[in-house]
Every structure is written in structure tokens, then in C-alpha cells.
User: Which sequence fits this backbone?
């Protein structure tokens, strides 16, 4: 009886060892992460690809994508703990700094000077928008802040000389311009490509002011970054693989973006051009378009929204970019 018990124990031990091997690190539970997005925009391309092609999973993440209606809602959701990370505008991070909060950017998603301001055919120059209406996504959004900057860039008072009308994301802004609800809008591809074909007037192209522009970043609360650098590194790993795959597979990338954005397949040619124009602006090492951020900070200072002269490190954690540069 004792010999039988010993034999059984040996068998059970062997089975247990085999199970341990089979359920080791390769089958370990993925780390959960909630990532907030704002609009169905080309800036979210790498998140869409990471989700569709399993790059978050490969990085050991159980990623859940949470859609917010505006930049401010996304920032509030992150502060409240609804998500751990956001892909959003650097404006949200600067707004946070200006109001004494701790949202911190840690990786640049895309450095594309994507915005072009299109107006009704009656306008020939941007300055003619004085007294007019500019359609934006929401107040305090990047579309709002960059439009204020563009008004100032053209010698007008961004607080007095134009009216801002919150109408929604890129396609909603396009629709508002088509029906004359607004006089001009900041458009980004594919909307800007559609507006060109519709005969609307290009009044200003951000590329004329910036070779690179900090369009979207990954950001989180400072405490999250300090507590869980492993989580951040896994997200960066998935981001990098998504960029590399997208650059090698632009046609399938286009389909992924369209499917995730829920748009009609008839728009494929616009989205294909958009993917081609955007892909070179996704930095594989996460480097920030610092010149454009400096201009934004100065604009905030000029408007009295920032009182001091902060270094970019006051709201950007450069350590992950520095680590990537050493590899």
C-alpha cells in the first residue's frame, strides 16, 4: 500500500510539473490596460492596428479601448481612473499643467502637421475669416487650440475676432461646413482630401508653419508612469510593432482603419491616400516634435493661461524616448 501511494505521488508530481511547464510564462495572464481614444481619426491608426493584429496581446497586455467624445472628456476620464492611458493631443497635457494637474506625456504617437483650414468659396484668405465662425470638435480640444493659434498667427485676436462653434469630429466638421453652419474648419485627412474635391477653398496649411507638428501623444497620470513602468514599456512595444507592420502593409492598414472607424467602403481612395501621407510621421522611437510644442506653450503664455516658463520636462517624461534612442 505504501509503495502504491509513493508511486501515485510520483505520477501526480510528474503531472503537476508538466502542467507547470505548459502554463508557465507563455500562458501567464496578460496585464490589463484601458486605453482612451477621442475621435475615429488617423492618429489612432497604431492603436487600431495593435488591436487588430494582436500586438497588444504579444506584448502581454489585455487591452481594452475606451472611446471618449472629446479631449476634455478623455482627460477627465483618465484623471478619474476610467482608463490608465490616453492617446490624445498635447494640448490636453498642457491644459493639465496650466491647471495644476499631473497628466504627463511619455511617447509621441504621430508628428504630422495634418491640419488645413478650408473655408466657404467666398473666402480667399484666412484673414477674411475675421468676424466669422470656425467649426471645432469641442472647446479646449486640439482643433480649438490650434485654430486659436492660427487666428493669432494671422494677426487677429483669437478671443475676439472669430467665433468658435463646437460641431464634433473631422467628418462632423466637414458636414457643418457643407451646410454653411460654419465659415471654415480645421480639417485633417481624409476630410481635407474630400473638401478639396468639393471645391472648398484652402485658406491655410499647417505644413507652411511646421515641418513636424505634435499631433497626438500617449499620456497618463504621473503616478501611473512612476508606479508601472513595465505597463508603459509593454504599450510602447506594441506601438512600435504596429508602426512597423503598418508601414509594410499599407493596404490592409487602410482596411483596418476604415473598419474601426465605421466608414463606407466607397471612401477607400481617400483613406488610402491618408494612410500613405500619415505613415512617415509615426516615430518608431517616440520622439516628440518639440519645436511645435514650444510654440504651443508660448501661445498659452501669451494668452495668460501659463504664468511661468516651464521646460518641456514639466509635463513630458522623456525617459522612455531616451531609452529607445539608446537601443
Assistant:
Amino acid at each position: 500500500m505504501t509503495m502504491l501511494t509513493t508511486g501515485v505521488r510520483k505520477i501526480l508530481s510528474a503531472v503537476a510539473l508538466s502542467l507547470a511547464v505548459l502554463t508557465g510564462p507563455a500562458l501567464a495572464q496578460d496585464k490589463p490596460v484601458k486605453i482612451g481614444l477621442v475621435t475615429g481619426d488617423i492618429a489612432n491608426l497604431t492603436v487600431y492596428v495593435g488591436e487588430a493584429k494582436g500586438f497588444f496581446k504579444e506584448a502581454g497586455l489585455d487591452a481594452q479601448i475606451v472611446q471618449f467624445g472629446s479631449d476634455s472628456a478623455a482627460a477627465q476620464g483618465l484623471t478619474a481612473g476610467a482608463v490608465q492611458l490616453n492617446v490624445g493631443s498635447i494640448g490636453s497635457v498642457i491644459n493639465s499643467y496650466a491647471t495644476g494637474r499631473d497628466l504627463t506625456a511619455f511617447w509621441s504617437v504621430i508628428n504630422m502637421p495634418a491640419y488645413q483650414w478650408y473655408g466657404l468659396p467666398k473666402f480667399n484668405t484666412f484673414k477674411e475669416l475675421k468676424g466669422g465662425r470656425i467649426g471645432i470638435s469641442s472647446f479646449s480640444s486640439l482643433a480649438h487650440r490650434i485654430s486659436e493659434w492660427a487666428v493669432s498667427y494671422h494677426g487677429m485676436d483669437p478671443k475676439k475676432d472669430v467665433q468658435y462653434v463646437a460641431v464634433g469630429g473631422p467628418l462632423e466638421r466637414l458636414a457643418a461646413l457643407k451646410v454653411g453652419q460654419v465659415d471654415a474648419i480645421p480639417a485633417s485627412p481624409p476630410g481635407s482630401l474630400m473638401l478639396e474635391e468639393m471645391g472648398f477653398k484652402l485658406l491655410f496649411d499647417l505644413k507652411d508653419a511646421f515641418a513636424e507638428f505634435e499631433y497626438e501623444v500617449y499620456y497618463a497620470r504621473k503616478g501611473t508612469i512612476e508606479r508601472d513602468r513595465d505597463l508603459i514599456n509593454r504599450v510602447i512595444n506594441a506601438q512600435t510593432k504596429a508602426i512597423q507592420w503598418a508601414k509594410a502593409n499599407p493596404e490592409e492598414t487602410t482596411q483596418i482603419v476604415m473598419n474601426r472607424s465605421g466608414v463606407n467602403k466607397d471612401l477607400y481612395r481617400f483613406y488610402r491616400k491618408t494612410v500613405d501621407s500619415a505613415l512617415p510621421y509615426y516615430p518608431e522611437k517616440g520622439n516628440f516634435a518639440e519645436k511645435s510644442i514650444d510654440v504651443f506653450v508660448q501661445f498659452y503664455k501669451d494668452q495668460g493661461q501659463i504664468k511661468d516658463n516651464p521646460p518641456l520636462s514639466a509635463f513630458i517624461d522623456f525617459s522612455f524616448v531616451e531609452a529607445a534612442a539608446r537601443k
Notes: The first strand starts at residue 31 and ends at 37. The CA atoms of residues 127 and 154 lie 6 Å apart. The radius of gyration is 23 Å.
